[in-house]
Amino acid sequence: MLDLLFPFLLRCPVCEGAPARECLPWCETCRSSLQRCPPLCPGCAGVGCPPVGPCSRPWRLFAPELPRPFRIEARYLLVGAGYRLLRDWKRRPGRSSSRFILSPDPSPTADWPLGETPVLVPVPQHRARSWRLGHHPAGAVAEWLGRQRGLAVVPALELGPQPGQAGTRQARLNREARLSQRFSFRLAQGQPVPAHAVVVDDFLTTGLTARAAAQALRAAGTRRVDFYFLGFRPELSRSELTRPEASRPG
Fold this sequence. Notes:
Blueprint: H1 2-5, H2 28-32, E1 72-77, H3 80-91, H4 95-101, E2 119-122, H5 127-133, H6 137-149, E3 157-159, H7 175-179, E4 185-187, E5 196-204, H8 208-220, E6 224-232, H9 238-242
């Protein structure tokens, strides 16, 4: 509420600049740094691969345990000031910031090959983390995407009996610590098994959370699993982004 009544008292949480009314609490410079994510390769979950043909980086195969093909979509790139802006929304959501981040998506509704309308399954989150953040980011993204594409949101998953650190304070962990995590999900009690599900999460970084959710759905009987993320953090070098024919690094 204060961000609407007294915008002149605020400073951009990313760069301390003067915020712009159109995207409170962020400034115009940080807003313009938010980049739309290009199409992601269903093979390596990266950018730069040819739209038709085999993946240019087969050694980086994303979720090799899942049957192919499947779709991977993301709305924004987690790079530079845009990454800090999205991270700030995740930690401190507001009405103005949510309206800007989750603005109408002009992307057309996908043609699903199974001939069945998929359901959106947000990655579950610990109650303690939801209380700490003040919201459930994956759930908010799923609700927004459902309105945009006319799809139902189904909380088909819940945390397993030993979730460990899954979904808790990952921003404080380095890459090695994240990769060593073990995630546990299972079909939520009383929920039917969806034939076709789209796993929805806020950020795609290591991919371990989304893969664990997809494996739980597959184990329950889901035939096809796709993925949608609000933000995607590329881990490829600039040369790989501009030269998809680059060979595997030695």
